[in-house]
Amino acid sequence: MGFHAHNNLSLALSNAIAAMDAGAEYIDASVCGMGKGAGNLHLGVFVAYLHRAGIRNDYDLASTLHLSQHTADTVPASSLPLSLTDLMMGTYNMPFDVQQRLDEVIRLHNPTSTFHALQLLHEQDNSKEQRLIKPLSRAQSAPLASGGTL
Questions:
Q1: Angle separating helix axes 84-91 and 61-74, nearest 10 degrees
Q2: End-to-end CA distance of the chain
Q3: CA-closest candidate to residue 16, choices 34, 43, 52
Q4: What is the model's pTM?
Q5: What contacts 24+ positions apart, CB below 8 Å, involve 107-110?
Q6: pLDDT in tens, 5-52
């Protein structure tokens, strides 16, 4: 079963999530949400949601947003629902003051877009977190209320 969401009242993403919860396996989306009337589900917003929700997918968020930005810049009938940079920062739960670190990533790695720079920054942050978080051995585990250990 699939679902095709129009963005009437800006509810395309919410309705797509409800459709997935109800068992939809295919979700229609379009670049920049281009479609009839209020438009359709914005592909970049949908992919950002999948990444933020931890839903396994084959979409590259940075490339999807780069395509959306390019389309918005070159196709007069297209539009963006919000700042795609803000969308990506929200997806990766980045703080508002990330600009200095972002400038450094751009200087060092020369990525093809700001979206790719944010993706690199996110990957760096994840690798740091994985190095910092180490599981406790059973001997180091805190006792449970029942008397066992974690």
A1: 170
A2: 42
A3: 43
A4: 0.76
A5: none
A6: 999 899 999 999 999 999 999 999 999 999 888 899 999 999 999 999
